Amino acid sequence: MASSSKRSLPCVLLLLLAVFHHGCSSARAHRRAGDMEGSMSTDDSSMIERFQRWKAAYNKSYATVAEERRRFRVYARNMAYIEATNAEAEAAGLTYELGETAYTDLTNQEFMAMYTAPAPAQLPADESVITTRAGPVDAVGGAPGQLPVYVNLSTSAPASVDWRASGAVTPAKNQGRCGTHNP
């Protein structure tokens, strides 16, 4: 009997530590939310609540209260843009709708720097043009216009193809920063 209680003691201690840690982190999150509220209006308070829900949904956390405040301001500006754009789109009869994403706390400049490649105009001229001594060549190595063209006369093309139903289209994937994804 004493042997089994010795084995369960570490489990009980681990459980108590987990409960204590959860309580501390929850209290810390509430303090941060309180720090952010300060002298904000009712509209700001509802935006803070949205921000807290968004952070939980996307598992976001920030190193300092100052960084969290800055991210909140960016989030609030982006949400104002999203809501205004959606209202304009609806009034114009457009069918798209913008919404929150994992990037709603980033400025446009931050997003572009993190997730896009430099514009081709920024590449050095010698890297953007490929030339050969032989002149232009097509994909199979011959000069354009000199290769036979094959046409399948036994069937006709369908009027439309749903590539999703064929399994040719996969869901969008987060490939991370430009140049870090695997082909």
UniProtKB/TrEMBL annotation:
Signal peptide span: 1-26
Keywords per UniProt: Signal
Domain of life: Eukaryota
Keyword Transmembrane helix listed: no
Limits of the Cathepsin propeptide inhibitor domain: 51-111
InterPro entries per record: Papain-like_cys_pep_sf, Prot_inhib_I29
Family matches, as Pfam families: Inhibitor_I29 (PF08246)
Protein name in the entry: Cathepsin propeptide inhibitor domain-containing protein
Gene source species: Zea mays (Maize)
The organism's taxonomic lineage, starting at the top: Eukaryota, Viridiplantae, Streptophyta, Embryophyta, Tracheophyta
